[in-house]
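Key idea: predict the complex, not the pieces.
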Amino acid sequence: GAGVSQSPSNKVTEKGKDVELRCDPISGHTALYWYRQSLGQGLEFLIYFQGNSAPDKSGLPSDRFSAERTGGSVSTLTIQRTQQEDSAVYLCASSLPLGGQRGSGANVLTFGAGSRLTVL
Amino acid sequence: GQQLNQSPQSMFIQEGEDVSMNCTSSSIFNTWLWYKQDPGEGPVLLIALYKAGELTSNGRLTAQFGITRKDSFLNISASIPSDVGIYFCAGSGTSYGKLTFGQGTILTVHP
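Result:
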């Protein structure tokens, strides 16, 4: 697609429920990232996928958080047993394949508009 | 882990004024990026810097990659109302695009 598409744009859920957030990256972008932005805060890295390599899950805050990427394209971020502190905007980004060349755009992330999650 | 300190946290300026914001890092970065975020949107890339000492312009925006590779600044000249938003610096010190973001600078421009 023309840009990174995320759904839903807004999600309100009750504490303890599970939620799934979807990300459709730019066609041809093999790298995909999830970030979390809490109110008035910067962006917190959650997880990174690159091609068929094992994902970097080092930013996931707890084992209630998981993500998968099917077929090297669409990704789903799942939060189980949601808590109020999970309320935030979840941003997905994608980037070009890593070419190892500076200026190649490998480090340039294109973000989606985000999914705003509110846990009551 | 890597930390970025971005300042100022917020700025209130008059239309036409110049703006400067900066970021410092506790460790060396190989890439510095500056993003702008409008309400309800994801961050949009403004400028990318790949080489220490590099000075790059994009219209009224100018950014520099510090010589020490631990800092960067962004200048906006002759501000206009549509410059309003949150500006983030981001750096990458790894071989892939895992970016560390600053806390953001909220810019308000009064007509």
